[in-house]
Amino acid sequence: MENKKELRNWLDAYKLDHPLVIAGPCSAETEDQVVKIAHQLKDSDASVLRAGIWKPRTRPGNFEGVGALGLKWLQTAKKETGMLTATEVANPHHVELALEHDVDILWIGARSTVSPFIVQDIAEACRGIKNPVLVKNPINPDLALWLGAVERFYTCDVQNLGVIHRGFSTYEKTKYRNIPEWQIPIDLQAKFPDLPIILDPSHIAGRRDIIQDLCQTGLDLNFDGMIIETHYDPDNAWSDAKQQITPETLVQIMKDLKVRSEGGTEAYENALNELRARIDISDETILQQLAKRMSISDEIGKVKAANNVQILQNDRWNAIKNKMINDGSQVGLSEEFIEKVYSAIHQESISHQHNIAK
Ligand code: PEP
Ligand code: MN
Fold first, then answer.
1. What architecture is the 267-357 domain classified under in CATH?
2. pLDDT at res. 354
3. What distance in Å separates the CA atoms of residue 128 and residue 342, rounded to the nearest whole number?
């Protein structure tokens, strides 16, 4: 991916207005449904109509998509509304059929990105195409696997690439269907600043009420657009009913979002510089405090070693964690954050004590 600048060009052509909005149902259900949703979206911020034609389902027995027939419906919707179209392709045959039916943007689903064999097959079927291909992150939080998939397309001479962040599967109970793990897309953007990145709040959320918040976070993190599942009757959608929103809600969400510009005025630069300087000072203090805390851990390590006492004291660790979660909530720090920070501090502290005991 040497010429990363090139990767960005397609976005300018497709992005009729910043940010790029792709909307439409999780699945194409009937011709009427696809065409009706396209008409409802025509005057919204969405310039691309999405609809899944082949649906990869975690468990068999759920609706698995209408198949190639639905591509004709997308064609009709495109003809009637002028919207561009996008669908998921999961094998070379899908690619061939989608291109035959003038689908503008192809995306690779999270369940395909996990498999380098499948990605390679799809990439070869896409060789040389000018259509943008958007690679969803793999189900598991693995940046290398995600980028590896992008590279497979790039080496098959697919130049118009982008990625979609749809969150990562987790066994833990959280408010999300797929946890965002924002650090991963942030790392991706730092490594490939010219690779367009689209947010999929629908699959991250798995519910309607946090779509707006997720979109705002995405914009604040410099995402280039979003892909949002939209249906005129979300409750009765044939797949992902809980997370779909109506076209009217989409319009409202877009109205309420704050799209911020990249640069700004001199006053803005001054204010930002001052705040950044304060952050730097604060970071310095945090680091010093951490170093101080670890030197106390070293002392504890010495006392334990001298008395032949084991290093890990679960009761003490639980007490610290609970106290910090409680205190943290008083000062506006989330339980998830405190848990992560203190687990890391505790681990470092244990390893300090190990080194002392050696
Ligand atoms: C989808 O976009 O409807 C879909 C199946 O997404 P994912 O591959 O992210 O699960
Ligand atoms: Mn879906």
1. Up-down Bundle (1.20)
2. 86
3. 49
Cα of 88 vs centre of ligand 1, distance in Å, is 8
Domain with CATH 1.20.59.10 in the chain: 267-357
Mutate to test the pocket of ligand 1, among 63, 89, 203 (most ligand atoms within 8 A of CB): 203
pTM beyond 0.90: the answer is no
Cα-atom radius of gyration of the chain, to the nearest Å? 24
Q: Where are the alpha helices (DSSP H) in the chain?
A: 4-14, 31-41, 69-81, 92-100, 110-113, 116-125, 143-155, 183-191, 201-205, 211-220, 247-256, 266-306, 314-330, 335-357
Say which DSSP state 68 is in.
T
Tens-digit pLDDT profile for residues 146-197: 999 999 999 999 999 999 999 999 988 899 999 999 989 999 988 888 899 9
Q: Which superfamily, per CATH, for 6-259? A: Aldolase class I (3.20.20.70)
Of 63, 146, 165, 166, the one to substitute when testing ligand 1's pocket (max ligand atoms within 8 A of C-beta) is 166
**pLDDT 10s digits, 30-64:** 999 999 999 999 999 999 999 999 998 778 888 89
